[in-house]
Write a structure and sequence with these properties.
44% of the residues lie in helices and 15% in strands. The protein has 300 residues and is of the alpha/beta class. It has a domain of 175 residues: NADP-dependent oxidoreductase domain (TIM Barrel, Alpha-Beta Barrel), CATH 3.20.20.100.
Length: 300
């Protein structure tokens, strides 16, 4: 498995395993541990979380899984996010759905995540969404404190556009190391809005969430989904892939910004499909055929 060096002290696996739906998988923690170990054997060492996932339950469940095997945590890179508040019975103090990137909230969220994971450090903390009232000086103070105390080793963002990324980055002593964005053949916005261009300019490697467009790649009946699926099946036959998801991952992996797709499945065969895609090489013609299908109109 290829590894991507995000900073001097952090490398991640090219394929990331996401745990957004851990609670929805409804699996005993022993089964999830086995899945985690199988993914690790495939070369996937990086796991993606957020404080809000599973209505604030996924981090704690994952911590229970880590506690089943001594030394497992040290083999992994834990990514988690903060900055969104949800109304939840698991957070009765939250009065509304809002964003909170205050120094107090960031630090409080990290302290809780550390407790949930039963660890004393987070490898990579992301600000989950762009907060319209984000105070970059407060964020910088929070990041500096957490890094100085050894509680967070690296920082990044999620869903930030280029001006927002540059603005926050300009205030930080320890620079942002990634931007986690939505990328799929059904969501091309970051190819066209300058986000991936900025990542290339700064030599910052992005992650891609929802690379299969939440399952629309397989089952979507809208015009775009049907059109893209037809092309994916064509390319699948041409490259000898086992399924269209392998083609999607190969398409994302081909971008020179070295996007790391997040596989959010609890099924080992889905995880293997992403790993298989690392060995599939698309031609430029095939890449553009998928891209144009997603656009719905030919390139200029």
């Amino acid at each position: 498995m290829e590894r991507i060096k995000l900073s001097k002290d952090l490398s991640i696996s090219r394929i990331v395993h996401g745990y957004w739906r851990l609670i929805d998988w409804n699996m005993p923690i022993e089964e999830v541990l086995k899945l985690l170990e199988n993914a690790y054997d495939l070369g996937i060492t990086t796991v993606d979380h957020a404080d809000i996932y599973g209505s604030y339950l996924c981090e704690e469940r994952f911590g229970q899984i880590l506690s089943l095997k001594k030394g497992l945590r040290e083999k992994l890179e834990i990514v988690t996010k903060c900055g969104i508040k949800l109304v939840s019975e698991n957070r009765p103090e939250n009065k509304s759905h809002c964003y909170d990137t205050s120094k107090e909230h960031i630090i409080k969220s990290v302290e809780r995540s550390l407790q949930n994971f039963n660890t004393d450090y987070i490898d990579l903390l992301l600000i989950h969404r762009v907060d319209p009232v984000l105070n970059p000086e407060e964020v910088a103070e929070a990041f500096n404190k957490l890094h100085k105390e050894g509680k967070v080793r690296n920082f990044g963002v999620s869903n930030f556009l280029p001006p927002q990324f540059n603005m926050l980055d300009s205030y930080l002593d320890k620079k942002l190391v990634t931007n986690q964005i939505e990328v799929s053949p059904l969501n091309l916005e970051h190819f066209e809005n300058g986000t991936l261009d900025l990542m290339l300019e700064k030599r910052v490697y992005p992650m891609a969430w929802s690379p299969l467009a939440g399952g629309r790649i397989f089952k979507g009946e809208d015009e775009t989904s049907v059109r893209v699926r037809k092309v994916l099946n064509k390319v699948k036959d041409e490259v000898g892939a086992k399924g269209i998801e392998e083609v999607v991952y190969a398409w994302i992996l081909m971008h020179p910004s070295k996007i790391a797709p997040i596989v959010g499945s609890g099924k080992l065969d889905r995880i293997k499909a992403a790993v298989n895609a690392t060995e599939i090489k698309l031609t430029r013609d095939q890449w553009f055929e998928i891209y144009v299908a997603g656009r719905g109109v030919d390139i200029p």
